[in-house]
């Protein structure tokens, strides 16, 4: 793969996909601004009855409030992790051919989501969440646009790795 990336003309890598990451960061931050301006924490507003609420929540942990009560170190720990992941995935994009959108799309989604939540951690010390999916008494943990991008990107990367693993197995 490295030989292929080095044989491409300058600028023919997938870094152009960072436009999607930038657009996601902008959308994520805009939606969080709207939510912080119009919602009160813990007061759900029905968006689609029986399925979806807008519900402002603050998350000091990671996904699903993992380590939310860890004493404060997680703000910086998850911040460093977000920067590290973004750097690694950006390097991966730089080594990915521009035409390989199946790889570039999920990488760009994860980078955009990681940076969107990183901005929150640096600005507020927590991540602003507001999308609550529920049914009856069951509720999925509240999330945001950045979380959605990270989740979709991670699932696509997993599917991509399964696909490439299957192709390698067939080539033997």
**Strands in their spatial order, largest beta sheet:** 1-2-3-4
Radius of gyration equals 18 Å
The span between the termini is: 19 Å
Number of strands: 4
Count up the helices: 5
Largest sheet: 4 strands, antiparallel
Characterization of this structure:
With 172 residues, the protein is of the alpha+beta class. It has one domain. The protein is built from five helices and four strands. It has helices at residues 2-7, 18-38, 73-94, 101-124, 145-170; strands spanning 45-48, 52-59, 127-135, 138-139. Strands 1-2-3-4 form a four-stranded antiparallel β-sheet. A hairpin with a 3-residue loop joins strand 1 (45-48) and strand 2. Helix 2 packs parallel to helix 4 (101-124). The radius of gyration is 18 Å and the shape is globular. The two termini are 19 Å apart. The model is unreliable at 1-5 (pLDDT under 50).
Q: What is the secondary structure topology, with strand pairs?
A:
Layout: H1 2-7, H2 18-38, E1 45-48, E2 52-59, H3 73-94, H4 101-124, E3 127-135, E4 138-139, H5 145-170
Antiparallel strand pairs: 1-2, 2-3, 3-4
Helix pairs in contact: 2-4, 3-4, 4-5
Summarize this structure as a short list of keywords or feature phrases.
globular; 5 helices; 172 residues
């Amino acid at each position: 793969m490295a030989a292929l990336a080095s044989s491409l003309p300058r600028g023919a890598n997938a870094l152009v996909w960072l436009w999607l990451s930038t657009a996601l960061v902008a959308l994520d931050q805009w939606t969080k601004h709207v939510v912080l301006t119009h919602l009160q924490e813990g007061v759900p507003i029905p968006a689609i009855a029986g399925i979806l609420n807008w519900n402002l929540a603050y998350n000091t942990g990671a996904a699903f409030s993992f380590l939310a009560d860890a004493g404060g170190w997680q703000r910086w720990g998850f911040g460093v992790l977000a920067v590290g992941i973004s750097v690694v995935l950006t390097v991966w994009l730089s080594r990915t051919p521009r035409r390989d959108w199946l790889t570039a799309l999920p990488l760009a989604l994860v980078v955009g989501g990681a940076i969107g939540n990183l901005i929150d951690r640096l600005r507020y010390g927590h991540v602003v969440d507001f999308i609550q999916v529920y049914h009856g008494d069951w509720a999925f943990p509240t999330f945001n646009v950045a979380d959605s991008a990270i989740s979709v990107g991670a699932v696509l990367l997993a599917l991509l790795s399964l696909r490439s693993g299957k192709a390698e197995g067939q080539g033997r």
